[in-house]
Design a protein that fits this description.
Elements lengths: L10 H18 L7 H14 L2 H7 L5 H19 L7 H13 L3
Amino acid sequence: MLHRKPQVAPPEVLARYLSLLQGVFIRVRAIPDLSSEDAEMVRDLADALHNIPELLLQYGQRDAEHYLEGAVLSQIQEFDEKWKGKFPSLGKLLKAADKTISEWD
């Protein structure tokens, strides 16, 4: 959790690591050898989060910000509804982050 306002990394660093995260989330969806339910939950989690790097990379560019943020929030809500009680709420994690951010200087 961030407890102070972050400095934004240079675009090259941001792009490099967000691309890495996106690739990891895409591959996590295909991990074998989990129970059927665990595998489904991991795939759904990766599906809910894998567009966040693109959202951050495209932020402010021609409707991408609005479209991508809406898509990400919709995927998070779908995940939370499906896995309620079996995985911590991603929406609650976002709200906790929002609360912390609101307390920044």
